[in-house]
Amino acid sequence: MRLALRVPHSKSESLPLVLSMYRSAPMFQIETEGRTMAYVAVFPDLSLSFDLVERLIEAAAELPDVQVSIDERPVESLTKFLSVVRCYRESLAELDPQAHCARQATRIGDVGSCPDRACVSHCQFICMRCIQVVRGIGAQPVRDQLKAIAIQAEVEWCPNLRLL
Fold first, then answer.
1. Which of 44, 48, 68, 114 has its CA 20 to 30 A from that of 132?
2. How far apart are CA 80 and CA 116, in angstroms?
3. pLDDT confidence of residue 116
4. Is 138 left (phi over 0), alpha (psi -120 to 50) or beta?
């Protein structure tokens, strides 16, 4: 999972702190486009740099026009994305990451009064959204609907994610 964080140059007081962390990334570069300068940190394998990535996202979220992408897809919500990163990281400490994901989804479903039907997802970030899935003649395939929900939830990149 390739992660890229792009921060445009600004006069923000927190920029120097962010830049000092950026320089610790496996790949760091400065881009210029016209008069605009931006700093880009690239993590070819997110799973090797969880601590730094979490700190960078938290710090960079305060800066204007920050862009994050995972496997070339732009991240729309840094807050949601960071929650998924933390969940994925937790799952790696488990003997069975899939069982961990299913437990988290069950916990969310129980708290949220999940409808009394078979769950179509074993991911806590999709769990309550799965009630949006439309079945029947003329409806998109359930897998396609779940993929769209996974993108909205910023979880489609997670290696643990299973859609049906």
1. 68
2. 27
3. 52
4. left
